[in-house]
Amino acid sequence: MRDLEITAENKMHDTIRNIAYDADRKDAFFVSRPHEIIEKYNQWENLLPDIQPHYVVKCNYDRQVLHTLKALQSSFSCSSKTEVTKLMSMGVNAERIIFSCPIMLSSHVKLAKSYKLSTITFETKADLEKIHTIYPEAKLIICAGPTDCKDEFKFGCGTIQEFFNLLQTAKSLGLDVIGIKFHTYSGYRNANNFSQIISTYMDSFIDAGFNLKLLDIGDTILNEEDLFNIAVEVRCITDMYECFKKGTAKIIAEVGRFFVSSAYTLACKIDDIRELTNTTNIHRIYHINHDKYNFSCVYSDVPIVPKPLKTHNNKTLYASSIWGPSNNEEDQIVENVNLPKMSMGDWIIFENMGAYTSPESSGLDIIYTDNENNIYLDNPLMETEQFSDDITVPNNTSVRNMIILPFYSDNMTAGNHRLKYIHLSDAFNY
């Protein structure tokens, strides 16, 4: 299995080299592999078949990502008007959207009502008052935060008493609270007492006089290890409560990084090199053609690992740092890393860049590949278009996982790769 993974990685690096060097490309670019999203979705369904994933749109709202997940029958979690509007324009059913804003503005509630979004979250008394005034028929989910959160700007109710009091307010207003959302903060890695914390909140929910119909375990899963750990914890929860045994309540999860992080690689070119020397060491400073402010994940707990795109025969490594193109002292992307000696015009790649890096809004090209490393261009996925004289997608198509990409003529090439029509459900053998 490891040999297969290495082979796949080498093929992907070859593809990026073709794109970077064959076309003498000047600008940084993303390479996206939508089939990895499908593979992650398969992993999810195999390990957590009873938990419906709701993709966190703000994690990566590249339209290819959204169309892929829509075709996989994923549901979605939105935190802004823009995200809701984008999904509705794609034809996503309102029943598959949870509107979850840390601060629910009156305009948010009006938008939810106008689109008939049946499920929205709340976490303050002010939220409840707005909902009561504008959209009292909405189905509500109360947000609960981890009780061990030390962050001054935490989201969700941080104490059981706060949680219970808010439920009492909802009851006095006659609002329909159907469930709980466990709202974790970035970097929350405490799966060991996950079920215990949720159980405490669930008991309080029942004591407040509500019938639990939905439990949202939040965005707690970042990788395969988390998937296994949470699967165990969720089984503990379902074994403890009759509502899950009887099927009157369901569990959902908000999933972001797990689906999209590994599907994107960022390639950047070295535009300037400087050296700092002292009596014993040389520190090499590489300035690349993409700045820190487009590396949103720099501000999270996820490590950024640079890799030279070229193979270096000299195995000597040098203390190095990576910076954006500005002279701003805040534009440091990687503070300290050991790298081989690289030259002007060399390329550095950053893997696992699909989450919170804003590929679509970065202004960079996004170049898509399938699992055979064929390349196709950044064009919207279309479901109701005629791409050539002999390829037509019917308007009423409902085939699961059928995602159609634009058709290219056989004489279009990129590097050593021929651009071609790709039907994802065939290309990914899904």
What is this entry, summarized?
About 30% of the residues lie in helices and about 25% in strands. It is α/β, with parallel strands linked by helices.
Question: Care to describe what's here?
Answer:
With 430 residues, the chain is α/β, with parallel strands linked by helices. The protein has two domains: 2-32 and 261-350, Lyase, Ornithine Decarboxylase, Chain A, domain 1 (Beta Barrel); 34-255, Alanine racemase (TIM Barrel). The chain is built from twelve helices and 21 strands. The two termini are 19 Å apart.
**Structural class per helix/strand content?**
alpha/beta
Known CATH architecture of the largest domain: Alpha-Beta Barrel
Helical proportion?
25-40%
In total, the number of domains comes to 2
Mean pLDDT: 79
Beta-strand content: 15-25%
Instruction: Work out the number of β strands.
Output: 21
- Write the CATH homologous superfamily of the largest domain: Alanine racemase
Radius of gyration: 24 Å
Q: What count of helical segments does DSSP give?
A: 12
Termini separation comes to 19 Å
Low-confidence stretches: 378-430
CATH topology of the largest domain: TIM Barrel
Major sheet = 9 strands, mixed
